[in-house]
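Researcher: Good morning. I'm working through a list of sequences from a screen, and I'd like to move beyond sequence-only analysis. For each chain I'm collecting a predicted structure so we can compare shapes side by side. This is the next one on the list. No need for commentary yet; just the structure.
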Amino acid sequence: MAEHYQILGSTAAEISGSVEAGVRSGDLGPGAALPPVRALAKTLSCSPATVAKAYQTLRQRGLIETAGRNGTRVRERPPIATSGRSALRLPSPPGALDLSTGEPDLALMPALGPRLARLAAAEFSPTNYTDAGALPELVELARERFAGDGIPVEGAEITVTSGALDAMERLLAAHLRPGDKVAVEDPGWANALDLIAALGLTAVPMPVDDEGPTPAGLRAALASGAGAAIVTTRAQNPTGAAVSSYRAAELRSVLAESPSVLLIEDDHAAELAPVTLHSLAGATGSWAFVRSVSKPYGPDLRLAVVAGDEATIARVAGRMRVGAGWVSTLLQHVVLYLWRDDEVINGVIRARDSYVTRRLALRAALAAHGLDARGRTGLNVWVSVPDETRAVAALRDAGYVVAPGSLFRLASPPGIRITISPLAEDDIAPLADAVAAAAALDPVPARSSMALTA
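Model: Good morning. Structure tokens for this chain:
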């Protein structure tokens, strides 16, 4: 724990409030260690049970986590607004190539201006409270697109949420209660892991290979009592896994043994994925297939279409009605225009092909060094390393910023995530050289002085 911050309090509420204040101010930053229960109890002259209760409250709220031998620490992204130095992501060193974000290449995003101008020319009128909700034209087009991908939309319902994570939050909150278990991919999407912690739920890891969650991992997670399972159909973050036809059949067979489990399927890459969709939708009685538009069309388009069984979608739409209300119909109209625009459709195809070229080139370069690099689909490549902390630091010193695997892992081995969207062709070979040296813990070649001073 940072020596300059002292946790205070004599009751569980006061102690947890003091820790929260430290996180909020930035004095207890992401990853900051907290004292052991007995040590803090001795310092504060209170019962160990009091400190343990305070820590339990903080864990249930997703602010802290117990990391085995590493003790109790502040989560990397606790669900609380911060005002200190931990409020912002650490900037990349001057001239460094930032490959840590997981974001798409904005240069490949369609221009929104012409679509907004089209709305203005059509004399678009904002909706009122009475008529608000999912835009019928958008829902019907989504239904057609889902049906074309083999999603069982006959008898299913469709609604709209403010992105994939918003959909997941509403789905989990509607079906589960604090303390319930959720089967998640390991390694898996960091945002989903943070959300699960913030909801007071417990993540149960499912190992992931190139074809998605393993059947044995899913079966073990369900046997442990998981009430929900989250599966990324394609472009899994961070490994790039994509569920194959054979794996989908295996997973369906496992899910059939637990028909009451909530199945959440995440297809965030959508049109950017270069492989056929093999969905698990309908494998259980409660299911939801979530497809956001952020990756193909732009991160600022906070919208996802969600298909599912009637009861599940009714819960999501009903909860939204008494909360945020609806996703802006202005935003829904923009997405509708994008889906109907041939120029945009062709642009998404070019973006997909560009990501494929970059990803395959990096994987080939890393494989030439004998590195275990995964990335069948998506915007990232996952590289196994013996010591991810040293690898991340060595690459940073060499002019490359990558994401440490600890953000994505629960029980899986160490690794680093490299986002391929910022890469140019000339970046591939020197990056692979640097990663190979970092993975071997050898001196890492720095990027050229010209690049570092650009």
